[in-house]
Amino acid sequence: MFYEEWKKKRDALPYEIDGIVVSINNNDIFDKLGIVGKSPRGAIALKFPLIEAVTIVEDIKVQVGRTGAITPVAILKPVEVNGVIITRATLHNEKEIERLGLKIGDTVVVGRAGDVVPEVVKVFPELRTGKEKRFKMPETCPSCNTKIIKKEKDVIWRCPNSNCFARKSKYFNHFIGRSAFNLEGLGPKIVEKLLDQGLVTDPSDLFDLKTGDIAPLERFGEKSAENIIQSIQKRKKLSFPRFIYALGIRNIGIKTALDLSHYFKSIEEIKRASLNDLKNIKDIGPIVAQSIFEWFKEEDNIKFIDKLKEKGIVYETKEKTGKLKGLKFVVTGTLISMSREIIKEKIEALGGEVLQTISKNIDYLIVGENPGFKYDKAKELNIKILKEKEFLKML
Ligand SMILES: [Zn+2]
Fold first, then answer.
1. Residue 142 CA, ligand 1 centroid: distance in Å
2. Chain segment 154-183, per-residue pLDDT in tens
3. Which of 63, 107, 141, 219 could bond 127 through an S-S bridge, CB–CB 3.0 to 4.6 Å?
4. What is the rounded CA–CA span in Å between residue 107 and residue 112?
């Protein structure tokens, strides 16, 4: 009990502890129990599982991620951290290796907090033998040999080849993942085989697979192959945020996909959005806006979306009905007849939407008393302006 309690409190302590000592509270008994070797029988040390451990970096390799990011990874002499044997630790990027001053062969501290990927926390240069080697970033992608590139401000190197096998298989795994198309029954191993055999070149091809295509792949009987095909076919319909997330746009997680699905009604609308439109969306920062904008500028990506449509993939946006269906409003100034909350509810009940910022995607600006700068901006963008009374007539 006491042990469990302190194990939980451990992270909150301003100092580090590696366990507790349980000791008998009665000095007489403690003395009577005596000492074995160097340790008294009346006390026992209970160690917590390690969240950090010392080991050796045997090698540094690079791996290629879904978006082509090349990440250096430390190959470790196996060591137990927090109850799990770990053999790899992420080094994030070249700059991080520099910052740590890490060389291959170095003795290091690796740390692992919860389920997070382990990382190198500290290097002991004083333990070097002279045999350590400096790590050099490769010039080409370890998977496809294309020359890797890095933007000036970026710290991450990338493989620019969208046909790179490593990028492809990583992207396939993203696409079939639980938060994307959720294609149960397919996994990384099958994906690699499908790619190896040339049965698929991009994830839209998964929807063309026939039982006979995958049955010969290792361990599949006719029946289970058929089940997989059927479950793939069942996933042709999915929600809009899932669809956005499944595209694998750099920096777009589930949360951002959801934000985008609130703001846009279709993929075409996102595609049409200007960089400024995207930046103006609440919760979307400039880096994310840039990622989205660039993704839709690439012809291959547009082709991929078209291909998905041809294969019969449909995403469902929340269909709204009502006389304000699909219209976007912004409110500025003080309203006399009702509060902002009520107006929002009314508009939404009629299928419309109330947003915070003015952009050219907005249909109407409702103007109350003492309007703010939104009024000027709306005029600038030629957005229809409604006085409160005019708006009430619309309802
Ligand atoms: Zn590559």
1. 7
2. 899 999 998 888 888 999 999 999 999 999
3. 107
4. 17
